[in-house]
Amino acid sequence: MNRWLLLFFFLPVLAFAAIPTWKVIPDQSSIKFTATQNNAPVSGTFKTFSADIHFDPEQLNGSSVKVTVDMDSMVTAYADVAATLKTPEWFDVKQFPHAVFQATQFKKIGEKTYQAEGTLTIRDKTLPVVLPFTLESFSKTSATVIGNMILKRTQFNVGSGEWAKTTEIKDDVKVEFKVVASAG
Question: How far apart are CA 46 and CA 32, in angstroms?
């Protein structure tokens, strides 16, 4: 009888422990952004980011993710654009070196589509976000996730002073990501 009682108490812990931990494969993963300046797209990437991922599509209630982006790793087609985006008027990477997305709430919304509900911190602002994503492939040893969303840069104080207006540089910024990970 005591064995059954112990099993009953530890069953939730055992179920949570079964959620796999995933390790990002950096050279196959990416985070990209596209903004609009004077009606022309301006794109870039963040070359360095890390992630603490615990995800199982069969155990969404116990899944979690924390992605930390090195804001100084930003590159664009034009070096002067990337340098400007790192200044205090924009991302202020010296004072705010990281952007962080965290989520512990996941919902399945289609056959391979999900959404993560969490928070995104950029600069000095933390706001709730819903991040839709597609589980392109998933096995016990590897997973590929893609997704995108539109952020409002002014909600995160990105582009201050003369850049706060959205006439020349639009407010909407598209963020696209691909994460390839191995069980680890």
Answer: 6
CB 51 within 8 A of CB 66: yes
Query: In the predicted model, what is the mean pLDDT of residues 163-170?
Result: 93
In angstroms, the CA 16 to CA 31 distance is 29
What one-letter code names the amino acid at 18? A
Structure tokens at 76: 């664009």
Cα–Cα dist 72/91, whole Å: 9
Instruction: Return the SS3 of 114.
Output: strand
User: Global pTM?
Assistant: 0.87
pLDDT at site 17: 54
User: In which element (H, E) is residue 17 found?
Assistant: helix 2-17
Domains of the chain: 19-183 (2.40.128.110)
